[in-house]
Write a structure and sequence with these properties.
By secondary structure, the protein is an alpha/beta fold. It has one domain: Spore Coat Polysaccharide Biosynthesis Protein SpsA, Chain A (Alpha-Beta Complex), CATH 3.90.550.10. It is 34% helix and 27% strand. It has seven helices and eleven strands. It has a seven-stranded mixed β-sheet with strand order 5-4-1-6-10-7-11, sandwiched between helices. Strands 2-3 form a two-stranded antiparallel ribbon. β8 and β9 form a beta hairpin. α5 crosses α6. The longest helix is centred in the C-terminal third of the chain and has 17 residues.
Length: 229
Amino acid sequence: MTTLILLAGGIGKRANLGLPKQYFKIEEKMIIEYTLENVSEVDSIDNIVLVSNPGFMKTGKKLMESFPKISTVTEGGTTRNESMYRGFLKISEGERKVIVHDAVRPFTPPWVFERMEKLLERKNVVTTVNPITGNLIELKNGRVYEIHDRSKYVMGESPTGYRYRALKETLETAVSGGYLNEIPHDILLAIKAGFDVHALHCNCFNLKITFREDVKIAKALIRILEERG
């Protein structure tokens, strides 16, 4: 069994849309609905725990009517890690694998989730990465200081997958150590808990809607995909 924690607790400040971007509508559907349509088609995902912005709990629960894989909706926390922890607390102890994904990534190819689920048969933690295509520039005092070999680096993306016990130990260690909200990303929590984090190379389009311009890109892509059927 595999449960997906879908993180939709953010406030979307950088997008400046007047509401959290995951609940912003494009062509009569909210961005989160496109993401839910995408992940619901993945056969290996059995359940979805939706972690909602507290001000949109009614909206989140309403989504359960259209997406039966959503088993529960819970309020997000003040940080991504806290929201992830709150979602994890809603998962049964009998679960085997947990995949964590962002509600504002509606275009992640379904095969990424399928391949991640298979990798979790052998790995404790797997995260999605994409190549860096531009120059990797280090600045000092606002000036170009160094250009690094980009082949040594990748872009960290989403989803990230865990064996249930690995995620349990990662989060419980962070909570007991008092640094759940002090470390910016869960894969760093996993490393701190002693787990190796393995990379799943996506090499694919995996837009995270962050800025207003990203909404325009998403709108254009959704129109093209709908026209193609």
